[in-house]
Specification:
This protein is an alpha+beta fold and 502 residues long. It is built from 16 helices and 23 strands. The strands form seven sheets. A seven-stranded mixed sheet has the order 17-18-16-15-21-22-23. It has a six-stranded mixed sheet with strand order 3-2-1-5-14-13, sandwiched between helices. Strands 4-7 form a two-stranded antiparallel ribbon. The longest helix has 27 residues.
């Protein structure tokens, strides 16, 4: 049997193709960034055609670096930025508009209008989600209303809707020449159009949002042989699809209820496996589908989504020019003993879990003449840890379970000062795995399970290895003082947009 599996990791800022062997080790990888398009304040878009080109190029490059051919891959899996919304022409494969990214806030007014009748939680019982600009349904509604001819095409089935997993899978399996129009249960659960109990598109929600059923993809399992690749991946079974954060949960082998992981990427996403039943949050969290392997029942998770963490480091580099590289933030942060009283609340597009405040905007608080750019860099790192603390506190309140350890992954986990500060703020152990590319690894695991490369979940758990652990070392009084400062800063970030509904 072939001993390699490939993963397309289509993220918010870049696309990667990673090849793993049957021990879960990385054999080779390739990565390409794509443009971030900002047509107006609060609007964020991607060129989906550019992203598909990057998928092809990274797949070809990773195969060359591994010195193998496509036929040596047992399967390929897809993981992706979730909620990012696209409409494309079924016949030509050309997008009707740039993809609207999950961070985009252009539908804030529509969110507020819907919330007037029944409140922000009116759809939670069926979807597990609050009303927010984050999710796909209102983005799709906007495209149908603002792109000339889009609604007529969608109603006729000639315009196809999808999140980025659907777009990649459709192109990978043939595009206009018989490409599969599919999405897995995890991505479907982020659209606000899926009934998470039945795992089917909800006619009630489609009517509420005005979405034609003819444009929707078929909902499939996260791990199953779905079709065959073309082009650079000719003949390779497409056998895994997972939204990026659910993929990281699988890559961290959090298969038991109560196990949790936190991914530090563009934003932070903390998921706790809650088992075979959806648990509707009372503390501002999201209920989401965690994964569905083959014909087995779906697993569910509670999730806390934070919009801006790693993106704050990018902002310091690209918008302020404070540093020339992301690594320099870490270096500068370590030159000071603390944040010098400086706090950054990166509410660039409002605050997500557990606040869900569209009227919040980013602030830097606590500035004095003493503060310098090292303190600002340290505050940027600490903002990720504070926001994670808020989500963990909400999750513990919801679940009644105290976290004993937090498994971490993503680009920011290479920051030792951040990981130590995270352990200090949580008062619990932080654990980094040996393979930190857990998002791509989760997609590879899902695909490999479907074709028998790994026999079961127990085999995956057995090969998971720890790289480093951080233990809390801060006294309770100091920890409480830090958190008071953070909470004061958050309170001052609220209400900056006087009328977020217009």
């Amino acid at each position: 049997m072939k001993k390699y599996v490939g993963a397309v990791d289509q993220g918010t800022t870049s696309t990667r193709f990673i090849i793993f062997d049957d021990s879960g080790s990385i054999v080779s990888q390739a990565q390409k960034e794509h443009r971030q398009i900002f047509p107006q304040p609060g609007w964020v878009e991607h060129d989906a055609a550019e992203i598909w080109r990057n998928v092809r190029e990274t797949a070809a490059e990773a195969l060359i670096r591994a010195d193998i051919r496509a036929r040596d891959l047992a399967a390929v899996g897809i993981t992706n930025q979730r909620e990012t919304t696209l409409l494309w022409d079924r016949r030509t494969g050309v997008p009707l508009h740039n993809a609207i990214v999950w961070q985009d806030t252009r539908v804030d007014g529509a969110v507020a209008a819907l919330a007037r009748d029944g409140g922000q939680g009116r759809l939670r019982a069926q979807t597990g989600l609050p009303l927010a600009s984050y999710f796909s349904a209102l983005k799709l509604q906007w495209l149908l209303a603002h792109v000339p001819g889009a609604r007529a095409k969608a109603e006729a089935g000639d315009a196809l809707f999808g999140t980025m997993d659907s777009w990649v899978a459709w192109n990978l399996t043939g595009g206009p020449d018989g490409g599969l129009h599919i999405t897995d249960v995890t991505n479907a659960s982020r659209t606000q159009l899926l009934n998470i109990h039945t795992l089917e598109w909800s006619p009630v929600l489609l009517e509420l949002f005005g979405i034609p059923a003819a444009c929707l993809p078929a909902v499939v399992a996260s791990s199953a042989v779905l079709g065959e690749g073309r082009l650079e991946l000719e003949g390779v079974p497409l056998a895994g699809m997972l939204g990026d954060q659910q993929a990281a949960l699988v890559g961290q082998v959090c298969f038991d209820a109560g196990e949790a992981k936190n991914t530090y990427g563009t934003g932070n996403f903390l998921l706790m496996n809650t088992g075979a039943s959806p648990h509707v949050s009372q503390a501002g969290l999201i209920t989401t589908v965690a994964y569905k392997f083959g014909d087995a029942p779906a697993a569910y998770a509670l999730e806390g989504s934070i919009a801006i963490t790693g993106a704050l480091v990018q902002w310091l580099r690209d918008n302020l020019g404070l540093v020339s590289s992301a690594g320099e933030v870490d270096t500068l942060a370590e030159t000071v003993a603390d944040n010098g009283g400086v706090y950054i609340v990166p509410a660039f597009s409002g605050l997500y879990a557990p606040y869900w405040r569209a009227d919040a905007r980013g602030i830097i608080a606590g500035l004095t003449r003493y503060a310098n750019k090292a303190h600002i860099c340290r505050a940027a790192l600490e903002a990720a840890a504070y926001q994670t603390y808020d989500v963990v506190a909400a999750m513990e309140k919801d679940s009644g379970v105290k976290l004993t350890a937090l498994r971490v992954d993503g680009g920011m986990v290479c920051s030792a000062p951040l990981m130590q500060f995270q352990a200090d703020m949580l008062g619990t152990e932080v654990v980094r795995p040996l393979v930190t590319e857990t998002t791509a690894l989760g997609a590879a695991y899902a695909a490999g399970l479907a074709v028998g490369l790994w026999p079961d979940m127990a085999a995956l758990r057995a090969q998971w290895q720890v790289d480093r652990r951080w233990q809390p070392g801060m006294g309770e009084a100091a920890r409480a003082a830090h958190l008071r400062g953070w909470q004061a800063a958050v309170s001052r970030s609220l209400g900056w947009v006087e009328n977020p509904d217009v």
